[in-house]
């Protein structure tokens, strides 16, 4: 399958009004987040996409590294939302990926709180949101998406037990271009619904595989255990602890303890 991409092949007849109307493509880059941040500070048009075939210093959440070899999709979208819209970014980004995987491949993804996309309990996509907010004004926000499209996880033994790719799941290569174009369209549809976003919250909540599970959450230096009971409209997680108290987790890294 032809899997080369270019700015023109992404933007041409995309059908969006701003997301993906300008695409800056790099064969190789340290991190699309770095470049997007630079472009955001310089005032690049809202919806500008930075995309790289591979990243040499891809960044994950909680200061982790993110592996982005050729065959994956690594992109960052620059946006200038109102501050009230920012909490919805984790929801809209994971939902856009979820919808894209379902539409293009027919696979059945799941969302692990807050915004990992899994297939069969293995991570297929990671999302990183970064923003610069001062006095309630968003100077820029960047949605970074790393999606394992055509990767043989057997070639990456360090992560092969916890990660998967669309091609490994399907048993054949997938068009990165089709995935990308669908993803940008879905992102824009969801973004344009903000901040009136009850349905975004509900769709995200209903796709969370985490709810009802016994989990362990690492939030900063503290580890909490309990049952993931529900989520709030701002994306935070409500955890029922063994002593029956209910705590709110705003950000963290979770592991499922048992089904
Ligand atoms: C995670 O830890 O799950 C988030 C991973 C986010 C990776 C993407 S790939 C595109 C963008 N550029 C980066 O350096 N990171 C994000």
The count of β-strands is: 12
| Low-confidence residue ranges | none
What binds here, in terms of ligands, is: biotin
Q: Going across the biggest sheet, name each strand in turn.
A: 1-2-3-7-6-5-4
Structural class by helix and strand composition:
alpha+beta
Please estimate the helix content. 10-25%
Mean pLDDT: 94
SSE string: HEHEEHEEEEHHHEEEEE
Terminus-to-terminus distance: 39 Å
Query: What amount of the residues lies in strands?
Result: 25-35%
Number of helices: 6
So what's the overall shape?
Answer: globular
Whole-number radius of gyration?
Answer: 18 Å
Sheet with the most strands? 7 strands, mixed
Keywords:
single chain, 259 residues, alpha+beta, seven-stranded mixed β-sheet, five-stranded antiparallel β-sheet, 6 helices, 12 strands, binds biotin
């Amino acid at each position: 399958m032809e899997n080369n991409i270019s700015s023109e092949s992404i933007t041409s007849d995309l059908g969006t009004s701003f997301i993906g109307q300008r695409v800056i493509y790099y064969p190789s880059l340290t991190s699309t987040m770095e470049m997007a941040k630079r472009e955001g500070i310089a005032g690049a048009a809202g919806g500008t996409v930075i995309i790289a075939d591979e990243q040499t210093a891809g960044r994950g959440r909680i200061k982790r590294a993110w592996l982005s070899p050729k065959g994956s999709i690594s992109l960052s979208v620059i946006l200038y939302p109102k501050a009230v819209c920012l909490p919805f970014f984790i929801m809209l980004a994971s939902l856009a990926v979820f919808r894209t995987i379902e539409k293009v491949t027919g696979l059945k993804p799941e969302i692990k709180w807050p915004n990992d996309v899994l297939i069969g309990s293995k991570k297929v996509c990671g999302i990183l949101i970064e923003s610069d907010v001062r006095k309630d004004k968003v100077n820029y926000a960047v949605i970074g998406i790393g999606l394992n499209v055509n990767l043989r996880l057997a070639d990456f033994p360090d992560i092969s037990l916890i990660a998967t790719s669309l091609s490994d799941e399907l048993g054949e290569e997938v068009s990165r271009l089709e995935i990308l174009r669908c993803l940008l369209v879905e992102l824009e549809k969801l973004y344009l619904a903000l901040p009136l976003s009850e349905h975004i919250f509900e769709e995200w909540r209903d796709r969370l595989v985490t709810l009802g599970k016994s989990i362990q959450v690492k939030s900063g230096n503290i580890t909490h255990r309990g049952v993931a009971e529900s989520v709030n409209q701002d994306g935070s997680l409500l955890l029922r602890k063994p002593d029956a108290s209910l705590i709110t987790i705003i950000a963290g890294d979770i592991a499922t303890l048992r089904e």
